[in-house]
């Protein structure tokens, strides 16, 4: 809502309150003022001029040589390029020395040999937005009405030195969608009186009811429908002051009838519609729901199909307007109109909202009906418009108002105790203070010692419950006066859940190990949503996505991380390492919500270890990433239950991928992205992992327990085993551990050899075995015995021979 | 003989002095004190001496031998020290060259902000609650006093999955769900962080996915002054002890009264600048007293219980704290952006 500071002064005395002060006060007590605009800021020396003569420039087709009276002794010569300039026009002249927006200074000039001492201005050049300039002046210079006085300050005449406050209205403050509503608000804030417009005017003796009949069939959607008839209207421009006020309010002026309905819309918040009564033809208005397949051509020249829940105004035969949304072309006010039927109505908010949504039409009118207009202003607004039509459109207003008013306009009664107000706010207000606040708001309130009875005026449809009254008190009294306290109650210790603690630990460990936390989008395209998924199924889809790129909920985090990897690769990053934790979304047959599983994913590529000036540069490999996960399992206390198995997964390298198991459940994978996929995504060798965290979170970790540091020496035996290339190191290690018995404390691989000194198809794995008994010193015999068992086991189970 | 010994002593001492390294010194030792050395040679001639002279000469010979030994030892220490120093000089390195880089990652800045806020409220006895990102219309809207057809639903155009399911547009459904689980019994004292989604085109100030963190306290006798006091603690902790807060009236369907909280602008100290758009104040969060309808729908008796709630956007907070100018940075995962947030902040 744009509020003209000048216009507002019609209703509230704003003396000693600057626009800036007013804006600050409004913001602090209820409605955010998002900006203050002065359209003609910085403009000087622009006056009303009279074009005495206008001739074509002999040297230039598009230029005109004008002689303009600007109220000085001699007329000035101005070269004007506007196509619509002409003799006898009253125009805005920027004199030599004038400054226009953008610090554009007007100087003496010569155009093709002719002197030009000033500029004839368009409204745009004076700071008016193009879409608000009346259509006839949109492509050229502006003309004042002929009564404009030559030499007067044009900015003053156009009221462009106004301050326009832009109110950011929240949905509950529909009451402030009118100048009167804002006046009540400002009156309360400043504690000043509100002056409403006087509604006197001359009425014609003929009765409106004799000229037109009104029937309302859909009373639920349309509880109030009032009409007035104004005859002998002369269509023409509205007075300059009205045009200026509409422009300030963000509405483009058209002609006096349309401008007057818009003016009252802004003033009262009550949308009005003017029909050309002669075009209505039947002298009859029937308000009803549309029929199936009914159509209407609206003012914007579009033919619109109506549905049976759309409320329409008809002439008894065909629709002539979509109620509260837009008028029909067939009954539009035109230059030829002489008799106007003025409609003022209350259309049910839900009905208008649905209709305007169906047609994609939101207008100043529909946005007010949608929120519920003040039923008490329906008739007042009609009277106000009739008055203005009689004053500024030469109309004769027939006596009386025709129509139906079937709406309860009683004020809602609310009761609240002082104790409750003070208890909710944490304050100590007195009854007198509270009553005084309601007086300022012009809300009737009475009180005994403890209870306050409030009548919520119909203009304040937002006051429905006690809490709404508490808010009125608090905002007007000022939130600055509320003290600062902390809740007084039994305080229990706060804390993170185990799941939340584990999540934080994961972040710490992975970041400590060199991975950067990424956050990517949950929404992706159909293909990426499915790729790399641990649970392959159709992704959850949006009903109406904004784009194909964001249409599906992800089943895996990896594709999004790879996108981030590509992004960074393209920006010359030589080491890229990301992890992310977040939800993936799984459609479930018998559940009303999709399942949301928290996953951990990672993607690593490029140089892993480097020390440039020492010539070290090692790219990341499978084991670097696996080592990070191993550290994570250890810190999370699940290492004992974790197992890796060679595995094949879609889009992963078939020979460099492991499935990760927690006990017997497959919880994830780790592997190199398949080279063909790497090529597709423009990646270099990249390793990824994804893990279902739900299982990790659920795993009950053993309590920490101290084991005594051994007091007896251990014995180390190193063995190099030659096996077939296919034998897995992990299997060998398991065999050794199982065979080694209780004395074998640790097994560590320390060498892998495959090459020219080895028989083809074989490899050598060297392990270091540590034997120890915590209670005594081991004898050689015991170690030999245990070690022989190990050697036998690897021979039997893996065909391993000791390397010679 | 005596002369010969003295001469030897002089010779040896001179040679010790002249030794430049341990090897030469050792050669001197072997040459003079060895079994085949001249002193031994001299002592062999003792047999020819008289009985009186023999002990005198013996004592003298020992004296000479001791002196030479001492001289060698002293010299040896000197040479050893020099040798070590030489070795150390040779071993010295350029300590100004860069160290070996240690791989390390960082929290995403949004995580840092969220964890900071969580930690502050944990210390005041709150717990952290979470909920689904795909939410029922009921929890996202209806339970929060936004029935179907409510005008405020226009404020947040949503991504629907079915007529009844959507991507949550705020973290408030977690509040509704948590209250419902508590079955009408206070106190509820929670912080709810998480991802939310709205139908916006991504640009410098809009993102279809973003983070939110909300707080809720419900108990008997929770007052608006408690909200103000709590927000004051939060603002000072998050933005600095010198910051002031102010509340401005606002509207949210789930709170009544509703307010927005501003903090004083640090950049201009309240005088007005481009960051605070000339007002001296910066909008940080929305808050209010829980609407009685919300309490009742979640099973709380609104005659007995009151509560406050507040909610904010970690993106905005990080933008203000660090001067980030484009919300898309948070989701592009540009390492050159992310690595800037590795430094720990201390308060």
TrEMBL record, chain A:
GO terms for molecular function: ATP binding; catalytic activity, acting on a protein; magnesium ion binding; phenylalanine-tRNA ligase activity; transferase activity; tRNA binding. Residues 40-155 form the TRNA-binding domain. Keywords: Aminoacyl-tRNA synthetase, ATP-binding, Cytoplasm, Ligase, Magnesium, Metal-binding, Nucleotide-binding, Protein biosynthesis, RNA-binding, tRNA-binding. InterPro entries: aa-tRNA-synth_II/BPL/LPL, B3/B4_tRNA-bd, DNA-bd_dom_put_sf, Fdx_antiC-bd, Fdx_antiC-bd_sf, NA-bd_OB-fold, Phe-tRNA-ligase_IIc_bsu, Phe-tRNA-ligase_IIc_bsu_bact. Residues 710-803 form the FDX-ACB domain. Coiled coil: none annotated. Mg(2+) binds at residues 462, 468, 471-472. Belongs to the phenylalanyl-tRNA synthetase beta subunit family. Type 1 subfamily. This is Phenylalanine--tRNA ligase beta subunit. The gene is pheT.
TrEMBL record, chain B:
Belongs to the class-II aminoacyl-tRNA synthetase family. Phe-tRNA synthetase alpha subunit type 1 subfamily. It is found in: Cytoplasm. Its cofactor is Mg(2+). InterPro entries: aa-tRNA-synth_II, aa-tRNA-synth_II/BPL/LPL, Phe-tRNA-synth_IIc_asu, Phe-tRNA_ligase_II_N, Phe_tRNA_ligase_alpha1_bac, Phenylalanyl-tRNA_Synthase, tRNA-bd_arm. Mg(2+) binds at residue 256. This is Phenylalanine--tRNA ligase alpha subunit. PANTHER family: PHENYLALANINE--TRNA LIGASE, MITOCHONDRIAL (PTHR11538:SF41), PHENYLALANYL-TRNA SYNTHETASE (PTHR11538). Residues 111-320 form the Aminoacyl-transfer RNA synthetases class-II family profile domain. One of its GO terms (cellular component) is cytoplasm. Binds 2 magnesium ions per tetramer. Residues 61-92 form a coiled coil. Tetramer of two alpha and two beta subunits.
